[in-house]
Write a structure and sequence with these properties.
single chain, 448 residues, alpha/beta, Aspartate Aminotransferase, domain 1, Aspartate Aminotransferase, domain 2, 14 helices, globular, binds 4'-deoxy-4'-aminopyridoxal-5'-phosphate
Length: 448
């Protein structure tokens, strides 16, 4: 449907426009290549479209300004880390206060008590611990799960993403075996030794695999978000709960992205009942921090081991974890953002985005599709996929890169890894309509 020569020509024109309009970013990128590996402080930053990444200067609410003075509507929001909107005044005040009164002591601060109570209220799990990142939190819950069950392996969904957690860099091979995810670098052991992989939305496969009796926990997002949004079919998650319970497998829900479904994530929105839950990214309003929760039963079983003298070298912790600055940031964030009233603004914006994009798709009779979960929406160049493998097969990196560069050149930032748009209460209808217009123009340019 898309003429690839035309796409290549259009892309080249967008590349030139990008380079011409970003001279300061170009200069910084050239300088950065001297001492920063790949010219960036973190490898993923090489994934931005354009000849070099945009260097950002300031960000506030739903917008940021780059070092060339250009302003953007931010639909990436730090790939969820800034889902609250940037630079919340309450968080800034709390961080400033903590920065001047002591950050790290390895002692608990009073804010931690409030934070755990609020997490319990939102997600329905009674007991909580903190981590620095969602990756850390996932690593920790997997350790607890193996410890509690005495079983060696974990199960994950095909094409999942849960951070840089070794056990999760696994996909299903052609014959149903566990193989390393393409591009996974330097795993310490063959991932087939640690991990079983099942397709999302496939209860039979899950039941059969868990019946083998070697799985400690199933770690999953309630809707896949990292290979694009793949929603659970009706009744799927209730059946996952029943199957995991029947096989003595702990069910861990990773709400780091699906927090977009509401103040207590999909767990609260859909009435889910996990044994453990992980949440990270936006809960600190941009400050690195994450949390993980336990059901009453799991908390009780872990109470004694957590008091053992060797707990500091047991494999769960982090010296700066639970520091007073991070916890103060969570308190300020959860008391001023990510609340019912915030989602009441952000979710209709995502609905408007989905309607706008769907309108363009229908107008041009494209076999494309837009999916939404809470305040997150995403378009696909195919009909809705049912699982991660379908989604991975449908990915079109050339077209993604073009759409992203086209949007950047017109003042809109999308998440680089897929076509995701995330909305905060600080976005406006006009921001959404700008995207719809820019998306429509891109499609018209492509179709010629
Ligand atoms: N869980 C999920 C569902 C994620 O999408 C991510 C990151 N994209 C993580 C965990 C890891 O978060 P972090 O990189 O902040 O550790």
């Amino acid at each position: 449907m898309i003429d690839r020569n035309r796409l290549a020509q259009l892309h080249q024109a967008e590349e030139s426009r990008f380079v011409e309009s970003h001279p300061r970013s170009a200069a910084l990128a050239a300088e950065a290549r001297e001492h920063l590996m790949a010219g960036v402080p973190m490898p993923w930053m090489t994934r931005w479209p354009g000849a070099f990444p945009i260097f950002f200067d300031t960000a506030s609410g739903a917008r940021f300004t780059d070092v060339d003075g250009l302003e953007y509507v931010d639909l990436c929001l730090g790939d969820t880390g800034a889902m609250t909107g940037h630079a919340l005044p309450q968080v800034a005040a709390a961080i400033t206060e903590r920065a001047t009164t002591g950050i790290t002591t390895m002692l608990p601060s009073g804010d931690a008590v409030w934070v755990a109570g609020e997490l319990a209220r939102r997600f329905g799990l009674p007991s909580w611990q903190m981590a620095m990142t969602a990756t850390d939190a996932n690593r920790f819950v997997l350790r607890f799960a193996r410890y509690l069950t005495g079983r060696p392996k974990v199960a994950v969904m095909d094409w999942c993403y849960h951070g840089t957690v070794d056990e999760t860099f696994a996909i299903l091979g052609k014959d149903g075996q566990t193989i390393a995810r393409p591009g996974s670098m330097g795993p310490q052991v063959d991932v087939a030794l640690t991990t079983a992989v099942v397709p999302f939305n496939d209860l039979g496969a899950l039941d059969r695999r868990l019946a083998e009796g070697d799985i400690a926990a199933l770690l999953m997002e309630p809707a896949l978000t990292n290979i694009g949004i793949v929603l659970p079919e009706d009744g799927y998650l209730d059946a996952v709960r029943e199957i995991t319970r029947r096989h003595g497998v702990l069910w861990i829900i990773d709400e780091t992205h699906t927090l977009c479904a509401g103040p207590g994530g999909a767990t609260a929105a859909w009435g889910l009942d996990p044994d453990m839950l992980v949440v990270g990214k936006p809960i600190g309003g941009g400050v690195p921090v994450a949390a993980y929760g336990f059901s009453a039963e799991i908390a009780e079983r872990l109470a004694e081991p957590l008091h053992r003298p060797e707990i500091d070298t047991a494999g769960v912790g982090g010296t700066l974890t639970g520091n007073a600055l991070a916890i103060a940031a969570v308190r300020a964030t959860l008391s001023s953002a990510l609340r019912e009233e915030d989602f009441a603004v952000a979710i209709p914006l995502a609905e408007r985005f989905a309607e706008g994009v769907a309108g363009v798709i229908e107008k041009h009779r494209l076999p494309w599709h837009v999916q939404r979960l809470g305040c997150r929406a995403e378009y696909w160049f195919c009909p809705p996929p049912r699982n991660g493998a379908d989604a991975a097969d449908a990915s079109d990196e050339e077209l993604d890169a073009f759409m992203h560069l086209w949007a950047i050149n017109r003042g809109i930032l999308l998440t680089p890894f897929h076509n995701m748009a995330l909305f905060s209460p600080h976005h406006t209808d006009a921001d959404v309509d700008l995207h719809t217009q820019v998306f429509g123009e891109a499609v018209e340019a492509l179709l010629g």
